[in-house]
Amino acid sequence: MSAIRIALVDDQALFRAGVRMLLESQADLAFAGEAGDGAAARELVARTRPDVVLMDVRMPRVDGIQATRDILGDAADGGYPPPRVLVLTTFDLDENAARAIRAGASGFVLKDADPDFLLAAVRTVHQGNSVIAANATRELFAHVDRGRERRSAPPSWAELTQREREIFRLAARGLSNAEIAGAEFLSEATVKTHISRVLAKLGLRDRVQLVVFAYEHTLPTED
Questions:
Q1: pLDDT in tens, 161-215
Q2: Which run of H or of E encompasses 55?
Q3: Total domains in the fold of the chain
Q4: Nearest Cα residue to 70 out of 83, 54, 51
Q5: Which of 132, 160, 177 is the last residue of a domain?
Q6: What is the number of helices (H) and of strands (E) in the chain?
């Protein structure tokens, strides 16, 4: 298997140097390049096409939120696979982290996290999973979005079958595939298939985005 290619975006050169040394110490990881702000990150990603981007939130010129949005938009416009974006933040319940997740990031880690945790997080998002549990995502949005008005369910919600809506609601509550399978008397493989179809129909990338969708919309309680 080829190594996971990682780009690093942070405005602190010393921090970048430390993370680069960590990444290059791993046989299954490859360092694709680094940038000091979001504008340079956009050019770097378009040129090197990394698998994962470690993205600082607070940076001069273009911050990590806008950079995430731009990078994923460029991939969609260019027709190439988008990288997974893993946000680096200083605070556990950070409004900017929530905004980055809305922009398409697959999760976040604290900048002072244990090195082994950061490495595990990179591998996890590369596999298409999020690095924060759904219930933690709900807590994050509840903390930063008090008073935020929810939108009505979009037309894509009507494309979901009754079973898919049941699976959606359980996943949005933070249940794992195994827990959903037990609650719905299904196999884990069947649940995984349903989750994949739900994500595709709603235009979502992963379970974190699913929770964001559930939190931001007023969905019918009965279908």
A1: 999 999 999 988 878 888 899 999 999 999 999 999 999 999 888 887 888 888 7
A2: strand 52-56
A3: 2
A4: 83
A5: 132
A6: 10, 7
